[in-house]
């Protein structure tokens, strides 16, 4: 061990070049004589603690679900195009192949949501002879990984106990991530310390009602990755609060709401407001008339007293928060043109970013437009079918009281992500497919329970 540490110290200047600059900046080791070795020892200690912690959670299912959720909020720790989430997904899939896939007594489910994901992979693979091989590989890898996430979640969550454990892990990871984001924003806003994994770091700054500030992204590579995960957890936290009205549940909801706010991702803010507005209708279906009357009264008072105008002036107004709308409109217009040129096949995965007129070198910031521009109009229809099918299944489950506590928050999360897809390129985003997989698992398990009770 002593010889190994000595060799690592000698070759530290070479090994340190493999470490992303964002990690070195966050740890303050950029000017230290030894940079790689401290990170290696810290990482080894973290892995040891993680191993001890996972050993107490139970078997392969619990450990895999916790790792997937945690890794989804740690994708800032990356080497090149690969991050911890990629490592977690393919490691878990490898273990699944070696242990579960060969068990003939354990059926493998391929429900509609998983088959639709497979169709997207097939469309992406069909573009291999066309365009840049490197971009094709990166794009196909992203879509394959996304569909694989949904498959693993669906396969592992086979009963109510696994679903409940997933919700608890989701809320715990979201709470920790939100706390990190709030601390990150507070330190930057106070001018004490700046750290971000957004690349380039200057793009983390955004005009807001508080001025030109650095938005929180936690340990993620974008504020959108960070905030959309919190949006996924938000309806489950609100539903739990409405069940018990305990102080710790109030604190959890406040923590998640604060984390979403300091991300200054306005798509996520609107999605959280949508969840808050829609939840009473699903939580208290017997009082829909009263809720509508109260909402109409509040809207009228807000309008005629000028409160709504005041809120708009403070939050949006001239703060410059709509700066990215014109860019999104231009990208979407370019996407429509590409769909018109190649309606059946599109430009190919990751090919749109290098297309004519795309001076930002970014995908269409709308998942449906992104799917059509890169994979053809059939991919857009597949994505529409995914949302429509899962919304139908969860909506039907909400009609049954035993299933409502899980189905209703999942339906709210689905609607929130439907809104997020309008402003972000979420076609292959990890959190979107975590939501797809969990929604599909909920539908499979709860329908099985209800049919069993009917007999």
Descriptive overview:
- The protein is mainly alpha-helical and 455 residues long.
- It folds into 2 domains: 11-56; 57-454, no CATH class.
- 69% of the residues lie in helices and 3% in strands.
- The protein contains 19 helices and 4 strands.
- It has helices at 2-10, 12-15, 21-27, 36-55, 60-72, 84-99, 112-125, 133-156, 160-189, 223-244, 247-263, 266-283, 288-304, 307-315, 323-341, 367-375, 377-397, 401-420, 430-454; strands at residues 78-79, 82-83, 205-208, 211-214.
- Helix 8 packs parallel to helix 19.
List keywords for this structure.
two-stranded antiparallel ribbon; mainly alpha; two-stranded antiparallel sheet; globular; 455 residues; 2 domains; single chain; 4 strands
Summarize the structure.
The protein has 455 residues and is mainly alpha-helical.
How would you sum up the global shape?
Answer: globular
What is the total tally of β strands?
4
- β-strand percent reads under 5%
* Oligomer type: single chain
> Could you say how many structural domains there are in total?
2
Counting DSSP H or I runs of 4 or more residues, the number of helices is: 19
For the residues shown, what is the average pLDDT? 86
Helix fraction bin: 55-70%
Could you give the topology of this structure?
Blueprint: H1 2-10, H2 12-15, H3 21-27, H4 36-55, H5 60-72, E1 78-79, E2 82-83, H6 84-99, H7 112-125, H8 133-156, H9 160-189, E3 205-208, E4 211-214, H10 223-244, H11 247-263, H12 266-283, H13 288-304, H14 307-315, H15 323-341, H16 367-375, H17 377-397, H18 401-420, H19 430-454
Antiparallel strand pairs: 1-2, 3-4
Helix pairs in contact: 5-6, 5-9, 6-8, 7-8, 7-17, 8-19, 9-10, 9-11, 10-11, 10-12, 10-18, 10-19, 11-12, 12-18, 15-16, 16-17, 17-18, 17-19, 18-19
């Amino acid at each position: 061990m002593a010889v190994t540490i000595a060799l690592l110290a000698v070759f530290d200047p070479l090994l340190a070049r493999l470490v992303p600059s964002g990690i070195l900046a966050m740890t303050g080791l950029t000017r230290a004589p030894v940079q790689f070795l401290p990170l290696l020892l810290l990482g080894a200690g973290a892995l040891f603690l993680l191993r001890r912690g996972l050993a107490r959670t139970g078997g392969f299912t619990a450990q895999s679900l916790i790792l997937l959720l945690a890794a989804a909020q740690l994708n800032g720790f990356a080497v090149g195009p690969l991050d911890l989430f990629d490592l977690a997904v393919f490691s878990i899939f490898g273990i699944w192949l070696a242990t579960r896939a060969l068990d003939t007594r354990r059926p493998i489910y391929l429900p509609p949501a998983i088959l639709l994901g497979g169709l997207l992979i097939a469309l992406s693979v069909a573009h291999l002879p066309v365009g840049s091989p490197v971009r094709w590989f990166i794009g196909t890898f992203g879509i394959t990984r996304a569909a694989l996430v949904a498959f693993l979640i669906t396969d592992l969550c086979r009963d109510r106990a696994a679903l409940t454990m997933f919700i608890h892990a989701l809320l715990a990871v979201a709470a920790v991530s939100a706390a990190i984001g709030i601390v990150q924003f507070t330190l930057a806003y106070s001018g004490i310390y700046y750290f971000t994994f957004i690349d380039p770091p200057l793009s983390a700054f955004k005009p807001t009602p508080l001025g030109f500030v650095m938005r929180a992204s936690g340990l993620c590579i974008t504020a959108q990755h960070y905030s959309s995960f919190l949006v996924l957890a938000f309806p489950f936290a609100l539903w739990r609060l409405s069940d018990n009205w305990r102080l710790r549940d109030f604190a959890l909801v406040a923590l998640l709401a604060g984390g979403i706010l300091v991300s200054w991702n306005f798509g996520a803010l609107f999605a959280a407001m949508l969840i808050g507005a829609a939840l009473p209708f699903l939580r208290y279906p017997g009082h829909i008339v009263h809720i509508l009357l109260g909402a109409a009264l509040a809207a009228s008072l807000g309008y005629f007293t000028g409160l709504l105008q005041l809120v708009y002036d403070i939050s949006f107004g001239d703060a410059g928060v709509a700066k990215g709308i014109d860019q999104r409109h231009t990208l979407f217009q370019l996407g429509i043109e590409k769909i018109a040129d190649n309606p059946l096949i599109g430009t190919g995965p990751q090919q749109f970013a290098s297309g004519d007129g795309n001076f930002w070198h970014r995908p269409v910031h709308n998942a449906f437009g992104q799917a059509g521009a890169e994979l053809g109009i059939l991919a857009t229809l597949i994505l529409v079918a995914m949302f429509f099918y899962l919304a139908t299944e969860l909506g039907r489950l909400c009609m049954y009281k035993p299933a409502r506590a899980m189905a209703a928050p999942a339906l709210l999360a689905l609607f929130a992500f439907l809104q997020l897809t309008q402003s972000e390129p979420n076609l292959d985003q990890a959190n979107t497919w975590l939501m797809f997989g969990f929604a599909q698992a909920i539908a499979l398990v709860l329908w099985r329970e209800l049919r069993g009770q009917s007999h």
